[in-house]
């Protein structure tokens, strides 16, 4: 079942990556065409309320973005396998601390929360980021401390 | 972009992996947890020093508030409430993912297609985790409104509809270039994801909470990984994937221990009793006993095995049980504990409860380890456990728990069951073990019962 899940996840991820790459390549082509006639582009965007060009200003064109995505998917897929390998060896005695400990690790979302809260333009985004910091930090601090508390009980022996 | 920042995230990720690895031995586990925590501190500091981040006052306030609340929760929680605590923390992680993805959608415009899909998934999985965990929390706390599994008519059809709705929202979010539509779609995802989370967990009974908690653990990891795709951060992707994988493994272990498939736990309603015959007939030959008789039996016992269930923890009897095992060991008996994988309310819960009572972990034997040796056990003391020692799982193919792996205490020479009454366990079925010729029932509150036995043994 484990390998089935892994293969399924992998194929879904691959499919997802391929589709995104294709669509983005198409979009960037379209943008290139649009940018040839800037007056038309701005006219359309104003009429439909599109905020400027639909491409992230700081990032590069489609194919490159696709490579970034594939790199991320690679990291994800390999990490899932690493996770399976490590966790499968944990004895049942430690399953509860393992769960609370890994739970604390999933509080890594706090990184995203800090980035969102610290965004240069203050607004709703940074407000939600702020709340996210509190939630994720409860997860992190509570998770690691309670795990430590439990593991110390096991260590006493 | 400064290469140092992603490099630090890599170091943090490696610390997470090594930490989990080191955590797999009871001897080194504390160090493993500390490694994980230092990885987290490194990741947070790296993010704070990243040049893109401003507004430190608010961030610091958020960090401090979260840390204080988390610390108080960790210090105060009782070990019996550990499943609720982990459930709650899972939910908060999911909630954070929902908010971070939303904040990213609000903060910057012109997202890439894959980022938009990741935002949608992050919101959906996060919302399911948040509300699913809260419902699981309410069930574990035994709030009356949530105690019984609730199922709406056409529940599965409705859930399928919600999933479809979510896919639609994500598609619109991904392909729309209008930021207002995107925000509305995201809110739609968050709301329908919330309903999905409640609907998924609410029909599941209290006995299946170990599976739900494990699954929510996995979801919180996957939500984190999705958030990693939103903000292009490998630390989130790696940590999220690790947690997602660990949750899936634990879910699988729990399902196997109950001999049920995951889909059966999630969508199937466990059949009630009635298939196993008349209760009065089964319990016709039940014999009860007293502390003095139990002390006499224990007097000659060479090997004693305790089979604890969650009822033992509810009765706060674990300290008394350890006291009894100390007395017996002083008299030369070998004492062990047989732990069924679903003995507690989350994976490994019973081990933690016994560790809290100072029981050495090398005396805790897994079901598969102890089952082959049970016929050489003189006395098995079952306390607060019922379904996990029900032999009809082995003998009655029509039983709702047929095929579930159990601890075969009926093979021991004498079985003593400490229980308040003959009332059924979670599965709601009678237990033929109680009427076996080698079984003696002792009807009492767990803690008082064990203390009385200790007194009687000492008086021998």
In short:
The complex is a heterodimer of chains A (157) and B (460). Chain A has 157 residues and is mainly α.
Structural description of this entry:
The complex is a heterodimer of chains A (157) and B (460). In chain A, 80% of the residues lie in helices and 0% in strands. By secondary structure, chain A is mainly alpha-helical. The two termini of chain A are 36 Å apart. In chain A, helix 5 packs antiparallel against helix 6. Chain B has 460 residues and is α/β, with parallel strands linked by helices. Chain B is 60% helix and 7% strand. Chain B is built from 19 helices and six strands. In chain B, helix 4 (82-107) runs antiparallel to helix 5 (113-140) and helix 9 (209-230) runs antiparallel to helix 10 (234-257). Chains A and B meet through helix 1, helix 3, helix 4, helix 5 and helix 6 of A and helix 1, helix 2, helix 3, helix 4 and helix 5 of B.
Rg estimate of chain B, integer Å: 25 Å
Shape descriptor of chain B reads elongated
Counted by DSSP, the helix tally of chain A is 6
Q: What is the average of the pLDDT values of chain A?
A: 75
Please give the share of residues in helix of chain A.
over 70%
Placed side by side, the strands forming the largest sheet of chain B appear as 3-2-1-4-5-6
SS content category of chain A: mainly alpha
Number of contiguous helices of chain B: 19
SSE order of chain B: HHHHHHHHHHHHHEHHEHEHEHEEH
Mean pLDDT of chain B: 88
Q: In terms of quaternary structure, what is this? A: heterodimer
Task: State the separation between the terminal residues of chain B, measured CA to CA.
Answer: 78 Å
Largest sheet of chain B: 6 strands, parallel
Residue share in β-strands of chain B: 5-15%
Largest sheet: number of strands, sense, barrel closure of chain A: none
**For the terminal residues of chain A, how far apart are their CA atoms?**
36 Å
The beta-strand count of chain A equals 0
